[in-house]
Specification:
alpha+beta, 165 residues, single chain
Amino acid sequence: MRRTCGAGISRAGLLRARGGGSPDERALGGWYYWDMQEETARSAIDMFISAFNASDDNYVTALLSQALTSDVVFWGPLGRSEGIAAVERFVLDIRHHPAGTGTMVRCSAVDMPGEWARYQWVFTTPGGGPRLAGTDVVHLRRNLIDQVIVFAGEIDSSTSEPSAS
């Protein structure tokens, strides 16, 4: 079953908005350079997500170590933490959800303007149990994620309107 979430901005739309790409993208081979950056980000992000879906808790650390720097900064629902062990605790908490072991999937393309990337994800539990969706923003350093910012849940559109004073 395919899980979907909201549509993201296209690469073409992003480049139009950015005036045709940054000087680095134009100077370093244009699309080839852009695609290499996105592929590196996509690989690290997908490895990170695979930790949520590991067949056994004992594999989580190894998977995270392939995706994250040892000094990763993680901004999650409970605040800021540092290091792979802190991210592992978060992943294990999600894996041990009271409704059962769920599935985490990336449900959008990876949008990467520069060294930052964003993507959307969805977590579902078995039997139509709780579902959570969100957007993560990550920063990459030497092909690994060194910062993760988790935005979980829907944004209430009524709070985004300016208040009348």
